[in-house]
Amino acid sequence: MVAFVSTVAFEGIEAKPVDVQVQVAPGLPAFTLVGLGDKAVNEARERVRAALVASGLALPPKRITINLAPADLPKEGSHYDLPIALGLMAAIGALPPDALAGYTVLGELALDGTISRVAGVLPAAIAANGRGHGLICPAADGPEAAWASADLEILAPTSLVQLVNHFKGTQLMARPRPGLRDVTSDTLDLRDVKGQETAKRALEIAAAGGHNLIMVGPPGAGKSMLAARLPSILPPMSPPELLELAMIRSVAGDLAGGALSDRRPFRAPHHSASMAALVGGGIRPRPGEIALAHNGVLFLDELPEFQPNVLDALRQPLETGNVSVARANHRITYPARFQLIAAMNPCKCGKAGEPGHACRRGARCADDYHARLSGPLLDRIDLHIQVGAVTAADLLLPAPSEGSREVAARVAAARDAQRARFATLGLDARTNAEASSSAIEAAAAPDAAGTRLLHDAAIAMRLSARGYHRVLKVARTIADLDGSEKVGRPHLAEALSYRTLVDKVALAA
Ligand SMILES: Nc1ncnc2c1ncn2[C@@H]1O[C@H](COP(=O)(O)OP(=O)(O)O)[C@@H](O)[C@H]1O
Ligand SMILES: [Mg+2]
User: Which fold has domain 412-508?
Assistant: First the structure.
């Protein structure tokens, strides 16, 4: 007889339906698994055999064939163990034949018959719900699955035996509850940063308009400190945004306990991070740091120290808002709409430009360091600022009266203004940074004095077309923070001041 069990294959964060077909037929004893599985899928045979034996079920000495359909869809991961085991149990009569109808099943088996956690349960649960199925998943992933829908039927057993008892009716399982929101109270506050008013202002503008930002300054100036406090002034994620990120984190296996939070993510990979860690991929397809920063902040400290190919790989996601990873015979795409915050020292020794310091290699020290950054990458960063060293006198000052809460309120108001404006103009953008060039021209037409300033600056600073639109976007955000409907001369003047580094790199190149 042939038993059928539904499961899923992951393509990015999408869960595609897969049918596990199990046939137990007379013939020489054999156990074959077909259907374009990777190594983890093929090893399922050994885990399934051992888990069934441990649960008191021996495999019959017959010809067992498992097919994962559709046969041309690549299948990766260890979550096929459970559907294969359940299919076999149905085929040999250890489960009622119709018990598994209407369920999507995923889970990994341990040799003793317990069910271990797997990645991707949330997208699988959402897919199951969409097909009108219930879900059978590992107990440890139940709280995550419960986020998919309040009506989704979920069985989250710890072992094969527990599931069999449930179907027999001897020990019914309760539905898991959604994981509690992780309310890690926020200890990072902008109030901790003393002095650095210009940098704080730039951070506020970056938060308000969703702009990318690069900070250049000597070690110990507080660049990392400032960046880590950006999430505390960003608006919380909306429920759809939260769900999008949760799907990515689920596929990455980063959602232990199923706890979700509406706080935007802050990812700060080290500069030695490999391409696979940053962009995703590797032996097992996992979203990388830039996908895990979706709807939040990607902080790259010591930007010029990152491998050049890694920095190049950032350009496409910065443009399109998603990242593609090449697999053996297909490509997968993850959403990756993040805000890039970068920090760097002014030169290799870290102190160029400080009073009394002279680099041993003279001006080349700073020039060579800057030349590691490509023009096209810097071109995608709207705000460039210098962060000066803090003095002991600055640190002795009392804490500033204004903290993250006050700044976050202004940021939220500016974001509301942007959303409302783009909606009335019928444009598809949420922040000024996201707006297309035509959208920003419509939304940020400067007044007469502003136009004159822009005209003069375009000539004096040799603004490129992209540079011109970038200045408009930043000026629009500054005007929004100001509560001004028109973009005026002061807004443009401030926006023009955040462009120092492009010119420096152009000189160094
Ligand atoms: N503006 C500041 N206000 C208060 N403390 C600061 C400031 N700048 C630096 N510090 C202190 O110096 C440490 C190093 O700062 P950090 O942000 O790592 O500097 P950077 O990233 O620029 O090298 C911080 O942990 C903090 O204790
Ligand atoms: Mg630092």
Answer: Helicase, Ruva Protein; domain 3 (1.10.8)
Arch. (CATH architecture) of 2-168: 2-Layer Sandwich (3.30)
pLDDT tens-digit readout, 158-191:
999 999 999 999 989 999 988 777 655 567 899 9
pLDDT digits (tens, 9 = 90+) for 263-281: 899 999 999 999 889 988 7
In the reported structure, the alpha carbon of residue 408 is separated from the centroid of ligand 1 by a whole-number distance in angstroms of 21
- Tell me if residue 453 falls in helix, strand or coil: helix
| C-alpha of residue 220 to centroid of ligand 1, in Å | 5
Question: pLDDT value at position 509?
Answer: 46
Q: Choose one of 201, 225, 229, 390 to mutate for the ligand 1 pocket test, by most ligand atoms within 8 angstroms of C-beta.
A: 225
- What is the domain class of 190-406 according to CATH? alpha beta
Output the pLDDT for position 405. 92
Question: How many angstroms is it from 192 CA to the middle of ligand 1?
Answer: 9
Domain range summary for the chain, segments of one domain joined by +: 2-168, 190-406, 412-508
Reduced to 3 states (helix: H, G, I; strand: E, B; else coil), residue 58 is coil
| Residue 415: CB atoms within 10 Å | 21
Nearest to 222 by CA among 391, 451, 45: 391
Q: Is the minimum distance from the CB of 415 to ligand 1 under 6 angstroms?
A: no
Ligand positioned closest to the Cα atom of 386: 1
Secondary structure element (H or E) that encloses residue 136, with its range: strand 134-136
